[in-house]
Design goal:
The chain is α+β, with helices and mostly antiparallel strands. The chain has a single domain, classed as Cytochrome p450 (Orthogonal Bundle). Helices cover 46% and strands 11% of the residues. It is built from 16 helices and twelve strands. The strands form four sheets. The chain has a five-stranded mixed β-sheet. A hairpin with a 7-residue loop joins β1 and β2. α5 packs antiparallel against α6 and α14 packs across α16. The longest helix has 32 residues. The termini are far apart. Bound molecules: protoporphyrin IX containing FE. The site of protoporphyrin IX containing FE has 28 residues, from α12 and α16.
Length: 414
């Protein structure tokens, strides 16, 4: 059985070789920072021989993460080898989705959906995102405690995805339900819940199959479902691949953006002076957005698999080795981001963050996520909303999605 971090050891005292940063407790208790600081200082390329997910390499500094991402032919994303998380997605969990493919199939499918995130589509979506965000903010109470995660982050992200898919509005919370089940790896592994999860994912695929058929019968339009339905590379996918790619688009957009919106509130609560700068000058909002995403880093890692023996910065790696790139750590690398723990809305190089990855798989939804966050801040400031965190946040207890389950807040008028 694996050596997860032992309760009596601290990040400073544990033997380096025993460090296993997949341990969910360091995320559940928000105590991951010193573990990664130690790895960056002493072993930025580090080997854990024994973990619940088997042996794996940890890459924890900015430069080496980019070096791995820059060689996708050696460091594969393919689902054939287990995919893009430290958990192997093999056998019945094997999801065929283009984030977990290499070229050429990856590029063919990515090109189908890219136009949905192009400038004209983003401009089209901006209007709806703004209207929906304003509508939601107008329902929020001042001076009364509520949970920011469910009321704001989850709801706005779900709405954003519904706009992207041109999804039937009244049914939009189905997207939340499918995203929660689709992204829940624990539920997939648990015999008591795995059939329930599978049924939800079949419901999702069947629902989208009806939408695909409807949109295919209409002339092509810019929404994501229409683009997929009319394309060669995605128009006739097998059931399993349709399911995999739908989960990618729903979970990929959902668990991530929602946690930026929660992280944002938590970060400004800790650095109120940065919020005051935005209150004083709304022109600073666009530059603040990438810094918020860097600070939160909604996905802690992506994983690759070596397809041949190779070498990374002096470390010999074997064919089949699992290589985990810790974005959460690369974004705290002091050699790139001085005083990295601090939220600094004017950080000159915030755009160099790795939260969206880097290279051929870099997030296609990045612009949409940034837009949603920018609009949220603009609309909050218009309403003179300053948000104060009023209790302990509850964190997601796993090493892939990095985020919040609950964040109690009160809105005050500034
Ligand atoms: C703050 C919000 C977001 C974060 C932090 C985020 C993060 C990421 C990361 C780390 C990757 C993998 C990059 C790599 O392997 O190098 C990725 C890929 C992807 N993301 Fe996002 N994402 C966000 C929002 C979105 C949104 C709104 C969508 C749209 C539905 C989306 C859809 C995708 C897709 C389809 C991929 C696969 C790209 C590929 O393999 O070529 N993401 N994202």
């Amino acid at each position: 059985m694996a050596t997860q971090l032992r309760a009596h050891d601290t990040a400073d005292t544990m033997p380096l070789r025993d460090i296993d940063v997949t341990d969910p407790t360091i995320y559940a208790t928000d105590s991951w920072r010193p573990w990664f600081a130690r790895l960056r200082a002493e072993a930025p390329i580090h080997y854990t021989a024994d973990s619940p997910f088997g042996p794996y390499w940890s890459i924890s500094n900015h430069a080496d993460i980019q070096a791995v991402e820059a060689r996708p032919d050696i460091f594969s994303s393919s689902h054939v080898f287990g995919g893009i998380t430290v958990v192997d997605m093999l056998g019945e969990y094997n999801l065929v989705q283009f984030i977990a493919m290499d070229r050429p199939r990856h590029g063919e499918q990515r090109r189908v959906i890219t136009p949905s995130f192009g400038p004209s589509e983003i401009a089209r979506m901006a209007e709806s995102v703004r209207a929906r965000t304003a509508e939601l903010l107008d329902t929020l109470p001042y001076d009364t405690e509520f949970d920011w995660v469910d009321t704001v982050s989850v709801e706005l992200t779900t709405q954003m995805l519904a706009i992207l898919f041109d999804f039937p509005w009244a049914d939009r919370r189905k997207l939340t339900l499918w995203s929660d089940w689709g992204g829940d790896i624990e539920a997939a592994l648990n015999p008591a819940t795995k059939d329930i999860r599978q049924q939800h994912l079949r419901d999702m695929t069947d629902y989208f199959d009806r939408l695909f058929a409807e949109r295919k019968a209409l002339p092509p339009s810019g929404d994501l479902v229409s683009l997929m339905a009319h394309s060669d590379a995605m128009g006739d996918m097998e059931y399993n691949e349709r399911m995999g790619n739908l989960i990618l688009l729903i979970v990929g957009g959902n668990d991530t953006t929602r946690n930026s919106m929660s992280g944002m509130v938590h970060a400004f609560h800790q650095y109120p002076g940065e919020w005051q700068k935005l209150v004083a000058d709304h022109g600073k909002i666009p530059a603040a957005v990438p810094e918020i995403i860097r600070w939160q880093t909604p996905l802690s890692h992506m994983r690759r698999t070596c397809v041949e023996d190779t070498e990374l910065n002096g470390h010999a790696m074997k064919k089949g080795d699992k290589v985990v790139m810790w974005y959460i750590s690369g974004n705290r690398d002091e050699s790139v981001f001085p005083d990295a723990e601090r939220l600094d809305i004017a950080r000159p190089n915030a755009r160099r963050h790795l939260a969206f990855g880097f290279g051929v798989h870099r997030c296609v939804g990045a612009r949409l996520a940034e837009l949603q966050i920018q609009i949220l801040i603009e609309e909050m400031l218009k309403r003179k909303m300053t948000v104060r965190v009023t209790g302990e946040p509850e964190y997601v207890a796993q090493s892939f999605v990095h985020g919040y389950k609950k964040l109690p807040v009160v809105i005050e008028r500034h």
